[in-house]
Amino acid sequence: MHSLHELLKDQLKDLFDAEIQFSAMLPDMIEKATSTDLRQGLSDISENTLENITQLQEVCQLLETAPTGVTCEAMRGLIRETTQTTGGQGDTATIDACLIANAQRIAHYEIAGFGTAKAFARCLGKSEAATLLGKLASRAGDHDKMLSYIATGGWFSTGVNQEAIEGSTSH
Ligand SMILES: [Fe+2]
Hints:
Elements lengths: L3 H29 L3 H27 L10 H14 L5 H32 L3 H26 L7 H7 L5
Helix pairs in contact: 1-2, 1-3, 1-4, 2-5, 3-4, 4-5, 4-6
The chain binds fe (ii) ion.
């Protein structure tokens, strides 16, 4: 850690690895989900995560670095917890609620990671990189809001949490 520029490059490599890990986890999450809204939501997140990977490559190009060489240990932990959900048994609505809990923790990690990287890039005068990172942060924010909506419901549904209150007794 010798300068903010070096730190930013390191953070980008970490984020790149985090997105690769999440992207590899998402198909199992989609398969495990029962709610149609959740399946659709996770599919959208999956598509966006692939786009994030491409855009992080672009940001790395702008900073003249390769996105490889770092393992994101935090995402490893989050993925390990998610694997417990996808491998678990029980009430389908409760499993959906748990998948949402896992995905929202990941979304918040992304918001923090992309937001910090954006601030570093802006500080270094890398405005194009900062703009791209800002888009990634707000996309993660959109995912978080969408997951909250699926969990707590709205006009057209009561939400996964409400369904999970009943648990296996109603299924
Ligand atoms: Fe990380």
